[in-house]
Amino acid sequence: MKARWDIFCSVVDNYGDIGVTWRLARQLVVEHACAVRLWVDDLRAFERMCPDIDTQLDQQWQEGVDVRHWPAEWAQASAADVVIAAFACQLPPDYMEAMAACERTPLWMNLDYLSAEEWVVGCHRLPSVKFKGVQKYFFFPGFREGTGGLLREAGLLEQRQAFQQDAEAQRQFLHAMGVFPTIGTRLISLFAYENPGLAPWLDVLSTDGTATHLLVPEGRILGDVQRWLGVDGLAAGDIHRRQALTVQVLPFVRQEQYDRLLWCCDFNAVRGEDSFVRAQWAGRPLLWHIYRQDEDIHLDKLDAFLNLYTAALSPAAKTALVALWQAWNTEGDMASAWKMLLEHWSEVARHAESWCLEQALQDDLATALVQFYESWI
Q1: According to CATH, what is the number of the domain 4-151+363-376?
Q2: Closest by Cα among 113, 114, 123 to 146
Q3: Any idea which residues carry the catalytic annotation?
Q4: Which residues, by range, are in coiled-coil regions (predicted)?
Q5: Domain ranges of the chain
Q6: Residue 276 and residue 283: Cα distance in Å, rounded?
Q7: What is the mean pLDDT of each run of 10 residues along the chain (377 residues)?
Q8: Could you tell me which CATH class the domain 156-359 is placed in?
Q9: H or E segment at 316?
């Protein structure tokens, strides 16, 4: 019989949590023949990346996944064989009682946040708290051997490489989104939280000797873009030009379309967790806007990733890349950092592809979860 999986997602972080759990749920169904219920407390947020969702329904099927609305007042539901609490969300008390009442105890995991910190390896798959005999385990995605790896569908890299080698496929994709870059233009995607460092970066892009077409999917950074342009009511479809820089606002799109957008671009500025991982699979230079946390502990996570990511770069290229990422995340000098990065562009671009291939040597996250369940039973 198929293993039954319940994935609980409480939408609190600007679509990153639902983005990760939706990709995971579909992959478990398609590649591992699991029966998956995805419990989501905010269907309107889910609708942004899955427009087929009916936000009025408590239960519906989407791409083989049994999507359930996670109500404020929990309804009776049997527990699954595997229970995932995504990003440390709290399960409904009645569901926890249902787990404890099962004849065969389910595997209960906290799917934690992505981190490159060394301590993650030591905590991965360790037992956590118990509830009436039901043991919870830590499960950490990660970049190091000994972690749960990263979400990566079967054949993803082959699809990406074929797409990037097909200029006509890229042209058709961009044209379908209303994007018509001129030949020789640098294409950059920008998906980020609010950031005061944006204006200096746009200043230097607008005065650069190379033309740049900046693609900005709808999101929190739009306010900063709007202020720099000096316009009101920036919305999807708008295009503005300032010297060498063209700024175009794109609508929020399905995950598969966003992946291809990343594949088309020469440089990708991303945020959070889901888009961060997808930018790495794009094999192109990237800039990460990490989610800000109290007491700046997010900067420790940023440094941990940079130490790992830049290990194979030359000292000069490493210095340039680290300076850009730190400036973006600490309101530093983006103009100088960007100019310094351009001096090492070829090396940084080659490294982005080699890093992608290196990470693909690990088992993907869905496979690692299934293997843990099979070893656990």
Answers
A1: 3.40.50
A2: 123
A3: 17, 273
A4: none
A5: 4-151+363-376, 156-359
A6: 12
A7: 91 80 97 97 89 94 96 83 95 95 96 95 96 97 97 98 98 98 96 95 97 96 97 96 98 95 98 95 97 84 97 98 97 96 98 98 98 95
A8: alpha beta
A9: helix 315-330
